[in-house]
Every structure is written in structure tokens, then in C-alpha cells.
Specification:
This protein has a single domain, classed as TIM Barrel (Alpha-Beta Barrel). The chain is 47% helix and 14% strand. It contains 13 helices and 8 strands. The protein has an 8-stranded parallel beta sheet. Helix 3 links the parallel strand 2 and strand 3. The radius of gyration is 17 Å and the shape is globular. The structure holds phosphoenolpyruvate.
């Protein structure tokens, strides 16, 4: 049985005080849902992680980081290592969000190194992939998503890939209010699962959670999350407000 995961990526939003407020509200509101429906993950900015980790310690809500370096330590000013995250008790780390691919020039090859570093430290990577608007309009969505998954992940063994969570995030749907239709999302999710089956085994491919991300909100979550190959959501905007985030969890 695959695990549903609902992860809120706060990006570079909220002061520490606002972050504590949001995390406290969510902790209070999702007590039952956490156990029954999904693994809930909060992914605040690095600065807030330690405090929020502490605030959530008597709950089942997990934390994640938005990025990490591929080395455990060294002269890399401004970076945060996967070893530091693991030592703090962080569970997940987003690798290859399209904003980092776009604004920080992160390549599939670099992301493959980050995936290794995260796994070596016992973190669960959430590996993001997805096509741009131009790529979709050029009918390249299958080619692009397959190459991102192959180049970022296919050096892993079967045991390792089973520890990775994938997130299909069409770039044209992130923060734009445009959501992929459930058919469009399901098509890519099923396609990527078939690519995973071809490279590994059906059992491995069936065990891997593939999340959808891109303007998921309470109004469209139910339809998206009811698709056979969509195993949860990576939520940006709607995760900044406790009610909309919790409504998404409740729609599973
Ligand atoms: C994201 O940042 O991963 C995301 C899906 O953002 P939004 O929900 O705002 O589109």
C-alpha cells in the first residue's frame, strides 16, 4: 500500500512568528487526519525548521527542508548540509523544485548527487520534475519528464529508489492558479510509473509515492487525489493558510 503524503512547501514565506502560528493551527486541526488518512509534512524555510520541529515533536506531523547541499560539510558559505538536517530530526527534503532548477540553474546531474547525499543521511528525498508551458505546447511533456526522472534517479538501486518520493509539478501550474486537469496529471503519473516499472520491477514502481503539485487547492484536491496514480500533493500557496491546507488533507 502506498502512503498518501500531503506536504506544504512554504517557500520563502512567513516570519518565524507567523510560521509558529501556522504550524500550531495545523497541529491542532489535523490530529485525527494524520493517523488515518495521510502523512502530513510541513516544509518551512531553514530558519524556522528547528523551532517548528520542536513544536511538532509530540505530533505525527513530519518536517522537511526545501533543499540541501550534496556534501555533508565544508567550505560552502550559505549552504545547509543533509547531515545537519538529519541530525535535527528532519524527515524529508525537496530536491529539484522547479524554482531551484530555474533560478539556481540546478541540473539533473547535480540533483542526482543531492539525492545520493540525502539518502546516505537517511532523509527521504521528494524529487520534483515537470515540464514548462512551452514543452507541453510542443508535446514534449513525456520526453522531458522521463529524462528528468532517468537522469536524476536511475543510478539508484531498487532498494534506494523505493526510499524516494516523486512529485510531478508541471511548471506552468505552479503558483499560477492553473491546475493540470486530473486526466493530464494521471497520464503523467501513470507514464512515470511505467518508466519505473521498466527500469526496476512492478513491485518497486507500485510502492513509490508520486505526488502532484501545481495550484492544488481545496476545490480541486478531491478530484486529483482520487486518481489511481496520484498519491498525495506538494502544496505551495494553499499550504500558507491552515484551513485550506487541512481541507486538502480532508479531501483524501
Ligand atoms: C510548489 O511550490 O511546489 C507548488 C505546487 O506551489 P503552488 O501550490 O502554489 O502552485
Amino acid at each position: 500500500m502506498r502512503k498518501y503524503i500531503i506536504a506544504g512547501n512554504w517557500k520563502m514565506n512567513l516570519t518565524l512568528e507567523e510560521g509558529y502560528g501556522l504550524a500550531s493551527e495545523i497541529k491542532w486541526m489535523v490530529a485525527d487526519e494524520v493517523n488515518n488518512k495521510a502523512e502530513v509534512v510541513l516544509i518551512p524555510p531553514y530558519l524556522h525548521l528547528s523551532g517548528i520541529q520542536n513544536l511538532l515533536k509530540d505530533s505525527n506531523i513530519k518536517t522537511g527542508a526545501q533543499n540541501c547541499h550534496h556534501k555533508n560539510k565544508g567550505a560552502y558559505t550559505g549552504e545547509i548540509s543533509p547531515a545537519m538536517l538529519a541530525n535535527m530530526g528532519v524527515t524529508y527534503v525537496i530536491i529539484g523544485h522547479s524554482e531551484r532548477r530555474q533560478y539556481n540553474g540546478e541540473t539533473n546531474e547535480q540533483l542526482a548527487e543531492k539525492i545520493n547525499a540525502a539518502l546516505e543521511n537517511g532523509l527521504t528525498p521528494i524529487y520534483c520534475f515537470g515540464e514548462t508551458l512551452w514543452e507541453r505546447e510542443s508535446n514534449l511533456e513525456l520526453t522531458i519528464t522521463e529524462s528528468q526522472v532517468r537522469e536524476g534517479l536511475f543510478h539508484l538501486t531498487e532498494e534506494q529508489i523505493k526510499k524516494v518520493v516523486l512529485a510531478y509539478e508541471p511548471v506552468w501550474a505552479i503558483g499560477t492558479g492553473k491546475t493540470a486537469t486530473s486526466n493530464q496529471a494521471q497520464e503523467i503519473h501513470a507514464f512515470i510509473r511505467s518508466v519505473l516499472t521498466e527500469k526496476y520491477t512492478k513491485a518497486a514502481a507500485e510502492s513509490i509515492s508520486i505526488l502532484y503539485g501545481g495550484s492544488m487547492k481545496p476545490e480541486n484536491a478531491k478530484e486529483l487525489l482520487s486518481c489511481a496514480d496520484i498519491d498525495g500533493g506538494l502544496i505551495g500557496g494553499a499550504a500558507l493558510e491552515s484551513r485550506s491546507f487541512v481541507e486538502i488533507i480532508k479531501s483524501i
